[in-house]
Design goal:
Keywords: Signal. By secondary structure, the chain is mainly β. The protein is built from three helices and 70 strands. The chain folds into six domains: 462 residues, no CATH class; 59 residues, no CATH class; 92 residues, Cadherins (Immunoglobulin-like), CATH 2.60.40.60; 84 residues, Sandwich (Immunoglobulin-like), CATH 2.60.40; 80 residues, Immunoglobulin-like (Sandwich), CATH 2.60.40; 84 residues, Immunoglobulin-like, CATH 2.60.40.
Length: 909
């Protein structure tokens, strides 16, 4: 049913424009103008009245769908990472960026994008943009600061696996970004949907101005190419984006008409921006400008890839008051023609854009239906804020006598204007166009149309038709759903031919614009006839290859440090010819690990310590021959990973600050796998200090340390590169904040931290050992003092670990004083020792005689010990008065004691 539907869809479709197509490609771009304001969108439109969906893919992954129909165009905002990169590592490297669009019917697709102050449009050429040989076009770019901002860039995206792409024809002294090797060619192999960005930037100054203009891109399978400068300075001030999608050499022609943009051409001096670039595709190409009918060319290009810029002074006025000018270029051999344009006459230097110009041909369409939102291009500017709608000029090139309408009206259509040097074509222009546009020749004359737009310092443009006016064969569909060879469906007659050797051709059945070759591989041509554009034309041959067979899938299970057994490709069909090992490649890379082909054509896969559990890759191989047999095989690799859970252990610590940790019990039960064979524990991250086996279950360590664990499995792999971790912790201990001694008869203990409820205990003396038994503790924070004055130790236990951790302790003093002193050196009552006051805050100990004279002041110097003397002199026997005062803790109430002391001195009566 799918195949029948596809045929029906083909027969119902009518090609109204050469760039409407079923498929479109956009190669990625490298941006050297970094910006925080970026927009990038695909604009889609069609002439089909029945809605259909366009699917947008990146690297084979569907990233969006847009439904469109006539009058209801669509827009898809592209995540920037799919189409534009600012990273140097993405230049000169195989990457998975770029877009592939697929629709059930034909449609236009153009990419509109911007950075701060600058914008451009890349118009997709559809299947007409695919080919094998291209010459590169871009502006000449001046050096400027900052270094590395300007560039010349060419990007390609592959449409088939195993595509070899070669860049040549540039100055070998040029230094490419990320690839400084001075080689005359750069070659890369791409698989389907892979892309590559060739770039030089002004960090390297050798011949930078010319850059890659005229360089050649060749491939052995169809590719899509975009070229230009992102960004480029073409004048002494100002910079902009110059970018368009190229067409292959066979889609170029020998005659073109260029119309100007919004630059100011009504001046005797050349426009800074507006000019035309001509690039030869063959040696000895002559270039004739305007009405030069002589045999002497205006310019001679001796080599393929040589080029010339034609200044705007050679443009002829069509309507100078409306700023409409033209240029007629004719070449002796096929050539590329690019128009550089300005988006704003007020600021030409900073509003550049670039268009690839289609060659003139009566095979051009007669209707371009419809171009969507032609004035739109979102760009943030420094002076005018966000701009969405721009000043856009519509330029129309038509066969002489064409009855031209825009949106079914002639209102605002300027022209027709005659062309210098060619009376068969006429020019039209429409100023300040907006919205959706349909351009039509009511009498079926050929037309093409492009836009040139911008505002402020913005410039952009693009042609929307004309690149399939040179007939060619394309392949649509795939081997699974069926493949067709198609040409454009604008012709009146089709005749197909077939050859197995590309020498002798025979007629092939089919008189419509498509055929279904099935398994009949070989060379095909098609002769197309347009009665209004005789004589008939024959396409270039198209090489139709055999479909690739899908081989039996392979499955392997390995460890994360292992490789699969080496695979030697073998055809499933034993009758196939010998394998061409130079054509064997990895057609789909795995998401992890490393798959590669060695010089002998054998397949390897290394897990390379990927973290993926499963990866899939595909490899392709083919036989020797012009039409080789080929096969693709899917390999699934199950990778046994060592997946571990980090953990932590919380234990009590002793008074030496260390605890005992059972590493084995904490780690191994939660990290079990049938493949695990060994656990090794290390003290350090460098894995240089192994913890002995005998210590693993009772590892003595301080808390806040990390133990590292390496696990080995039965595949011989381990996690040494990322060892598991056991964090050693301890419980938060409580802190005795204050101890308030109340009248010397009780204490109130205030603790914080740890885990409540606390348990409390006090004991006279300062010895910690032996520790009190748990049952000796009280849940009350107020405890009685039963052993009189002296030093005590308070013990507080936290509820952590069921009160199993050691208590915190603090010494405190219960103050008392003796009422008698006999300083006779007999060892009894010789002093009043109040050194216990040192355990209090703001202590005071004073002694006064009966008359109130102070005879002693305690201090840290005398340790609050009174010897019964006053400044070393013995005092008489008498009654003295003392004053004691202190605080138990900061902010506590002041404790005061006073009373009498009897001093009895035997030497004094």
């Amino acid at each position: 049913m799918k195949k029948i539907f596809f045929f029906a869809m083909l027969m119902m479709s009518v090609c109204l424009s050469a760039q409407m197509d079923y498929e479109h490609w956009f190669a990625p771009m490298g941006n050297n103008y970094r910006s925080t304001y970026n927009f990038q969108s695909i604009y889609l439109s069609t002439s089909e009245t029945t809605p259909f969906e366009v699917s947008v893919y990146n690297a084979g992954r569907l990233i969006g769908k847009v439904a469109i129909s006539k009058g209801s165009p669509g827009k898809f905002d592209i995540p920037r990472e799919y189409i534009i990169t600012e990273e140097d590592r993405d230049r000169m490297s195989v990457i998975s960026k770029g877009l592939h669009l697929i629709g059930d019917k034909k449609y236009f697709a153009n990419l509109r994008f911007s950075v701060l102050n600058h914008a451009e449009i890349v118009t997709s050429k559809g299947l007409a943009g695919l080919g094998n040989k291209f010459y590169i076009g871009m502006p000449e770019v001046s050096l400027w600061s900052p270094s590395g901002t300007s560039n010349h860039t060419v990007s390609v995206i592959a449409t088939e696996n195993g595509t070899t792409v070669t860049l040549s024809g540039y100055d070998p002294a040029l230094v490419f970004t990320n690839d400084p090797a001075g080689l005359p060619t750069k070659t890369v192999v791409l698989n389907k949907d892979e892309s590559y960005i060739f770039e030089i930037n002004n960090s390297n100054v050798q011949n930078f101005k010319k850059g890659l203009i005229g360089a050649k891109i060749e491939s052995d399978k169809p590719i899509s190419v975009s070229n230009g400068s992102f960004s480029g300075r073409t004048a002494d001030t100002g910079v902009d984006i110059f970018m368009d999608q190229a067409v292959p050499v066979e889609k170029t022609g020998q005659e073109s008409i260029i119309m100007n943009g919004n630059g100011n051409l009504n001046s005797p001096s050349p426009s800074v921006m507006e000019k035309t670039l001509i690039i030869a595709t063959e040696d000895n190409t002559d270039v004739f400008v305007n009405n030069n009918m002589t045999s002497t060319a205006d310019y001679q290009l001796s080599k393929a890839g040589d080029f010339v810029f034609i200044d705007s002074v050679d443009y002829f006025p069509l309507s100078a008051s409306d700023n409409v000018y033209g240029l007629h270029v004719k070449t002796s051999k096929n050539a590329y023609v690019y128009a550089l344009l300005a988006g704003s006459s007020a600021n030409e230097k900073a509003s550049g854009g670039m268009n690839l110009i289609p060659a003139l041909s009566c095979f051009l369409p007669s209707k371009i239906d419809e171009l969507s939102a032609v004035d739109e291009n979102e760009v943030q500017t420094s002076y005018d804020g966000l701009i969405i709608s721009n000043n856009v000029k519509l330029n129309i090139i038509a066969q002489a006598g064409a009855d031209v309408y825009v949106n079914n009206s002639k209102t605002g259509v300027l022209g027709p204007y005659a062309v210098l040097g060619n009376s068969d074509w006429e020019l039209y222009s429409v100023l300040n166009v907006k919205g959706n546009i349909t351009v039509e020749s009511k009498n079926n004359k050929a037309i093409t149309a492009g836009i040139a737009g911008g505002s402020s310092n913005i410039g952009f443009g693009g042609y929307f038709a004309g690149f399939s006016s040179i007939p060619s064969i394309s392949k649509v569909g795939d081997c699974a759903k069926g493949q067709e060879l198609v040409v454009d469906d604008i012709y009146d007659k089709y005749e197909w031919f077939y050859s197995l050797d590309n020498i002798t051709y025979v007629s092939y059945p089919g008189n419509t614009y498509y055929i279904t070759p099935g398994t009949k591989f070989g060379y095909y041509k098609c002769e197309v006839t347009k009665l209004s554009c005789l004589p008939a034309k024959t396409t270039k041959e198209f090489k139709y290859l055999k479909c690739t067979a899908i081989g039996t899938p392979k499955n392997y299970t390995i460890g994360a440090c292992n490789s699969i057994p080496v695979i030697t490709p073998v055809f499933t069909d034993s009758t196939a010819a010998a394998i061409d090992i130079t054509k064997t490649f990895i057609s789909q890379q795995p998401d992890g690990g490393n798959a590669y082909v060695d010089s002998g054509g054998k397949i390897h896969f290394d897990a390379a310590n990927t973290t993926a559990d499963h990866v899939t890759f595909k490899y392709y191989f083919e036989s020797i021959g012009t039409f080789p047999d080929s096969e693709e095989i899917t390999v699934t690799v199950n990778i046994v990973q060592i997946k571990l859970n980090n953990t932590e252990i919380t234990e009590c610590v002793d008074y030496d600050g260390q605890g005992y940790y059972d590493l084995k019990l904490a780690f191994e039960p939660i990290n079990q796998d049938a493949t695990f064979t060994k656990y090794t524990y290390y003290k350090d991250a460098a894995l240089s200090q192994v913890i002995p086996t005998g210590e693993i279950s009772a590892y003595h360590s301080e808390p806040d340390k990390i133990v590292y664990v390496v696990v080995t499995n039965s595949y011989g792999c381990d996690n040494r590169s990322t060892p598991a971790q056991i964090v050693l912790k301890t419980f938060e201990l409580p802190e005795i904040k204050t101890i308030d001694v109340i009248d010397g008869t009780s204490v109130s203990i205030n603790a914080i931290g740890g885990k409540k409820p606390y348990r409390y205990y006090i004991r006279k003396g300062i010895a910690i050992q032996p520790l009190p038994l748990l049952q000796d503790y009280s849940l009350s924070d107020t405890l009685p003092v039963t052993d009189g004055k002296g030093l005590y130790t308070a013990f507080v236990k936290s509820a952590d670990n069921s009160y199993d951790c050691n208590p915190v302790t603090q010494v405190f003093a219960v103050i008392g004083i003796s009422n008698i002193i006999t300083p006779n050196d007999d060892g009894k009552n010789d002093t009043i020792d109040m050194s216990i006051l040192s355990y209090k805050m703001n202590p005071k100990f004073q002694v006064f005689d009966r008359e109130g004279t102070k005879v002693f002041e305690g201090s840290s110097a005398n340790k609050f010990i009174w010897t019964g003397k006053d400044n070393g002199s013995a005092l008489p026997t008498s009654t003295y008065w003392y004053l004691l005062q202190w605080q138990d803790f900061e902010g506590a109430d002041l404790d005061v004691m006073n009373g009498w002391i009897l001093l009895k001195n035997r030497n004094s009566y």
